[in-house]
Structure formats: C-alpha cells, structure tokens
Amino acid sequence: MDIAEKIEKLKRIYEEFEEKVREFKKEAVCQKGCADCCKQMATIDCTTLEAFVIYNKINAFADPLKSQTKKKLKKEIHKRTTKSHTTCPFLTKKDSCLIYEARPFSCRWVYSLKKCNGKSPTIHRVVFEEAKSTIRKIQQLDNTGYSGHITFILQLFEKESFTEIYLTGGFNPQKLQKILSLYHILPNLKKV
Asked: What end-to-end distance do the CA atoms of the chain give, in Å?
C-alpha cells in the first residue's frame, strides 16, 4: 500500500471512530477557543503517518507562517528535552489550532463532558476504550513507522534519508536507535 492509500485509510479510521462515539460526545462542552487540553495536557503523540500529513501541511504554509512554525517546533524540542511544561506548538494566540484539519488522533479523540478549568478532561469510558482500539488500528496501518511526541516525530522528516526510507516502506530502527532512545520514540509494529 502506498502512502496516498495509507492516508486515505487513516481518514476512514478517523471517520469510523467518530461514528462509533458520536452519541457519547453529544454532551461535550468543548468549543473553538477552549484549548484547555492544548495548554494543560500537551502530550500530543502521533504516528509517522499522521506526522507525514502534518509535515506536508506545514510545508504548504506560505512564509512567514511556515518558517515561524518550524522555528516554534525547534524551540518545542528543546523545551521537551529539558522537561519544561509546554503548550501545543500548533496553538495560535487566539487559542485555535493551526493544523486542525490535519491534527493527529491524540487530539481528535479528546473531549470533555465538563468544563476542564485547568484539569484533565472528563471522557466517557466507552470513548476511552474505543480510542485505545483506534490507536492500535492506526499503528497497524503505519506498521513500518514509529510513535511518539509529535515534535519528535516531525523532526524525523527533516532528515531526507529517513523520509526516503519511510516512504518506500523501509524500516530500520537500528539506524535510528540513538534518536529513538533520546526522544522516547517507539517502532509501531513491524519486527526486525
């Protein structure tokens, strides 16, 4: 399966999840500009497939937005490696998401039944369980890829050699062992 087919399948996985949890999310209090999860949690994990979609979205931005976003991501890497608290690097000053249409599943499934007010969201147990199942499906789809924090996974695509291997279905975690270990990135599924 080529990358375009995988991206289409990823979209269908997102849609299937939304269909399954629609009834549970009807009472959600979340709305545009809330951004509590983006500020408090900021643990935005994704797969390489999701990051590839986001990477392409960033590269499609016009300058100066593209260069500002890349600069912000580099700062985010430094903050994360020094364990500083960070908000989502894609959160705008108006508390909206810069990559909303391309956001990873870790953002898509989170909602709250109560106002968060700086606390964790209140999520129905069924949605939580369905989210875990959906994450496994995404990782199976991206079986030659990796999972980890969005800023670290996006950084992999800055290396042309990684991008080439990934897009051709190659898988070489030994070659990336240092960066995988440093940034706590894990291979999705494929055994070497």
From this structure: 19
